[in-house]
Amino acid sequence: MLKVIDLHASYGAITALRGVSLEVRQGELVALLGVNGAGKSTALKSISGVLRPIQGSIRLLDEEIANKKPEVILRKGISLVPEGREIFTGLTVEENLRLGAYTSYERTRYQNDLEEVFTLFPILKERFRQAGGLLSGGEQQQLAIARALMSHPKLLMLDEPSLGLSPTLVDQIFELIHSLRERGITILLVEQNAERALEIVDRVYLLKTGSLEFSGTPEELKSKLDIATVYFGGASDAEREVSL
Amino acid sequence: MIGAEFIINTISLGSLYALVSLGLVFVYGILKLVNFAYGEYVMVAGYALYVLTAFTPVPWYLTMTLAVGFAALISYVTELVAFRPVRTKSLTAMLVTSFAVSVFLQNAALLLVSPRARAVRLPSWFNRTITVFDATVPLRNILIIVTAAVLLVGLTLLMKYTVLGIAMRAAADKFTTTRLMGVPANLVISAAFIISGTLAGVVSIFWVGRSAAVDPVIGMAPLLIAFIATVIGGMHSLTGAVVGGFVYGLLFNTLSIMLPASVISYRDAIMFVIVIVFLLFRPEGIVRGSYTEERVG
Amino acid sequence: MSTGMRKVSDVLKHRSTLVLLSVPILLGAVGVHFFASSLVVSLYTYFCVNLILVLALQMFMGNSGILNLTHVGWVGIGAYVSSILSVPPAVKSMGVPNMYPALVELSLPIVPAIFIGGVVAAAIAAIIAWPLMRLSNAVGVITLFATLIVMHVVMTQWDNVTNGPRTFFGVPFFTTLWIALAGALVTLAAAHYFRESSLGLRLRASRDDRFAAYAMGVNVVQTRYFTFVLSAFVAGIGGGLWAHYITSFSPKAFYIVEIFMLLTMLVIGGAGSVSGAVAGTAIVTVLREVLRQVENTLSLSDMFNRDVYGLTELSMAVLMVIILIWRPGGVVGGREVAWPLLRARRRASEVASADVASDE
């Protein structure tokens, strides 16, 4: 469904991606892993149009979308849940969701979508008329994902959804991602919490300083972990997690 | 009775100033641009009033509507031609651009019409005085209050209950994320400029109605009022702009009464000094808004 | 190689920007002096005076990235102070009938008068800028603009000092081609050394990334403050030289139209560098003169049947927006000319992405 070929991107003089290629197939849950600064978020930003890539091709269902505006790319069917959730704090939960449905609004369909969101995220029904800024971190993350789903994306991209959440909430978020995949939603997930991500994903890409280090199934990555740990210089589980 | 007169005139002036500063903040909220050309939208509406009243038989209500529409159009055109291409450049580049647009429009008026003021004749009832609550005030002042109330309610409804309004509020908070929702950047920015121009046009009717004349630099005073009022009220919310407008109107009328005649010509200077001192203690203004300083890129 | 030659090549190497900029200005002045009409000499003098004012603006605005609309106010203070100090009492009592007697009696030679003008401008700037430099972007720009208005109100209303909105005349002519040239070259050197000085570097760091500068221990507010006062001092001196060139003026000369002209010079050339300020001043001075001629010709022709106003400013505004759209770093592009020219270009391209982004 999504095919990224030889993607280069930079922030001013600082190069963040040097020729990354990856693919997400229909119905897959794919993880993009790597340490801080490896270029994971940059990849998502480039795909969603927030950052203009210098070079390379990004294809969604064989249509070139590189260098298109973010609002156009959303209409093509890619929805990004940005890092840090980026809830509109001054808007109510309802208004946040209404904006999520900006491109797909149709009254009855919108009502149905809301019902579906409420079954997935019951808390949002309770908080429906509260300001987004008053929600807790976990609730904000749920709202961010719900908001992104409102546009009926072909591909959902999640940037560090577990960041800053308590362990229980992290469990919930990963369960949720898993259940979204079960519903047939194609997902590209960026995570630092590699251990947890590997439990639920179909395939993995590993980024290191802007280049692809590994691609394959979680099992393949785990079998190569010995090499990886040597490579990263760590040995213990904890360190392995950090290094990933 | 001076008391009632003072109150009505102050509310009226405050309403006008609230509209003036609201127009500026609409664009600032989304683009983070302090638009120096804002006063010129008031000016072009003034010239539209002049041309329509002096050279055409158009009835007054149509004249006013067309003038407001012209200000909105010019505002939109300046966005399209000048601000849109520099939007991704630095903040100073945008500020300098707005300064240049202001100079351009002023000198276009100089070149096309005249450096001298032109008389604008609005219907005579506009400036008739009436008596309310024992106070004798121009009907115009009552009309300002009514107009401002209608516009404020209308804009509140727009911002709260329409998708465009919600998108504009969202864009003022997090511009990039709003685009990630599929909201076109140009749509919200253009909408902000059109609303800004419309407010400037409405302001122009009352401003020009008061002086009964228009000249190329007439936009300077409303621009300054918008600047100072928004700074007092707080630049990061629409409420701040409205509050700032009323506070400024009150300050202005109070100073006009209290200052001795010998220093009245320094009134503007004194007001600015008060404002600058006020900012030392509360740089974010009276109303702390939720808008961020995120630039549009 | 003789030591003299080595010295020359050393200077070229380390101070090539300064040499590359000042030699043409100097040669231009000599050329104009020997071969051109008095009109051109006068225009060249005006160019040099403008250059002082634009370089002073560049010092603060170019290095800090803050739009400083008060600049022309400091020019005005310098002009008034130096004129009040140097105009003979007899002329003053006639020209400014309401002037305070104490001021009328003052009479100083022109050079100290100009210098004191700079000091007064700097002193007032030192008081006013203290609160202003703390304010954030938007609020800061607005208050700087409001400050310009306050200065203008004071200049037009305080007729015991400035003759109010009326013309202040009888200022002795002093600023010849050579004096203006000397002033311009000294200011050029000052602006150049300032840009490369540690204060200038810190200021540019804060322009490019305010928070990173904070993190590196740069006191952004203080850095801006010192530069602002320095810039006001140079502007005040420039204002004095301007006053003794133009010999009569009114507060109008220190307001929107004039700050706009100075801004066009800086922005069209490129605010980020001293080279940009020089190029912009040269381009705009010539263009403005040409447009004035066109205006005059049109006014005298039968085409319009009236005076043609505003064409100059209108055209400059259009040109400025075009430059901001297509070449936001200005004609020069935010870098300095340097010797050898080719190497400088290559080095510039390496930093271009970081530099151009903020040099607009």
Protein architecture, described:
- The complex is a heterotrimer of chains A (244), B (297) and C (360).
- Chain A has 244 residues and is an alpha/beta fold.
- Chain A has helices at 40-48, 70-76, 93-100, 107-120, 122-126, 137-149, 167-182, 194-200, 218-223, 225-232, 237-243, and strands spanning 2-11, 14-24, 29-33, 55-60, 63-64, 78-81, 155-159, 186-191, 203-208, 211-216.
- Chain A is 41% helix and 25% strand.
- The longest helix of chain A is centred in the last third of the chain and has 16 residues, at 167-182.
- Chain A is globular, with a radius of gyration of 18 Å.
- The N and C termini of chain B lie far apart (55 Å).
- With 297 residues, chain B is mostly helical.
- Chain B is built from eleven helices and four strands.
- Chain B has helices at residues 2-31, 38-55, 60-86, 91-112, 139-161, 163-173, 175-180, 185-211, 220-233, 238-258, 267-281, and strands spanning 118-119, 129-132, 135-138, 213-214.
- Chain B has one domain.
- Chain B is globular and about 55 Å long.
- In chain B, helix 1 packs across helix 9 (220-233) and helix 1 packs antiparallel against helix 10 (238-258).
- In chain B, strand 2 (129-132) and strand 3 (135-138) form a beta hairpin.
- In chain C, helix 3 (38-64) runs parallel beside helix 10 (177-196), helix 10 (177-196) packs across helix 11 and helix 15 packs antiparallel against helix 16 (311-326).
- Chain C is globular and about 55 Å long.
- Classes of the chains: A alpha/beta (244), B mainly alpha (297), C mainly alpha (360).
- Chains in contact: A-B, A-C, B-C.
Characteristics of this structure?
heterotrimer; A: alpha/beta; Rossmann fold; 11 helices; disordered C terminus; B: about 300 residues; mainly alpha; two-stranded antiparallel sheet; two-stranded antiparallel ribbon; about 5% strand; globular
Brief sketch in words of this structure:
The complex is a heterotrimer of chains A (244), B (297) and C (360). Chain B is 72% helix and 4% strand.
Radius of gyration of chain A: 18 Å
Total E-strand runs of chain A: 10
Classification by helices and strands of chain A: alpha/beta
Sequence of secondary-structure elements of chain A = EEEHEEHEHHHHEHEHEEHHH
Number of strands of chain B: 4
How do the helices and strands follow one another from N- to C-terminus of chain B? Answer: HHHHEEEHHHHEHHH
Q: Sheet with the most strands of chain B?
A: 2 strands, antiparallel
Radius of gyration of chain B, in angstroms, nearest whole number: 19 Å
Extract low-pLDDT stretches of chain B: none
Mean pLDDT of chain B: 89
CATH class of chain A: Alpha Beta
Mean pLDDT of chain A: 87
Distance, first to last CA of chain B: 55 Å
How is the biggest beta sheet of chain A arranged? 6 strands, mixed
| Principal-axis shape of chain B | globular
Helix content of chain A: 40-55%
Sheet with the most strands: spatial strand order of chain B: 1-4
**Class from helix and strand fractions of chain B:** mainly alpha
Number of self-contained structural domains of chain B: 1
